[in-house]
Amino acid sequence: VYTLEVNHDILPEIRSRQSCREYLKTSIPQDAVQRILDAGCQAPSGANQQPWHMIVVDSPKRKRAIRNACEVADRGFHQHATATVRRWLEDHGITTEKPFLTDAPVLIAVLYDPKAPYSLHSVWIAIAFMLLQATREGLGSLPYTPSAADIKALLNVPQHLQLASILPIGVPRETVRQPRKPLTETQSWNQYGASRNPVA
Length: 200
Ligand SMILES: Cc1cc2nc3c(=O)[nH]c(=O)nc-3n(C[C@H](O)[C@H](O)[C@H](O)COP(=O)(O)O)c2cc1C
Known about the structure:
Oligomer: single chain
Strand order of the largest sheet: 2-3-5-4
Bound molecules: flavin mononucleotide
Helix content: 25-40%
Number of strands: 6
Distance between the termini: 14 Å
Strand content: 15-25%
């Protein structure tokens, strides 16, 4: 067995990252935002096409316009959600009010080019990297996916790009740790449903 002299702990940011839906209105350093964007751009992507573009929104007027559009669209989403999803949303206090879109000092609108190979997979890896770097910076974040709101027009986005997510970034006011399934429930060995043979 190949062994390496490294710290084998899972990256602390992977374990400590949490979705944040409540932010202080405190501003955050520009260089932290740049490092978060840089982290996203280090992600792997289909055929290395790097099919993403990030718009940093810090104008209060534009954040307000985004919030209004998202709240209108989310009312439709909540109305049409399945009973299970609606219950989960209610239990977690997720309403159609989106104060994080105006309270967070910065929103990162993440766009992707759907014509690039595996563009959606790629852009979500970039999002994951940005969430981890935000955690590293001591900042809160959230992979918010507005339902069908016409955000593109508000941000002057060219037709050929799609919106993957809007990430509020800021000083967290509150986050709640969400449970994870036990590891044994999410893995099999050699075929679906089989557990690993005990090591001899
Ligand atoms: C693809 C994706 C879409 C999501 N969309 C939303 C969203 O629209 N609104 C929201 O409040 N949270 C959204 N989330 C956050 C999840 O609810 C959250 O990641 C999950 O409950 C686990 O909590 P944690 O991120 O704190 O570990 C989304 C997460 C992912 C990965």
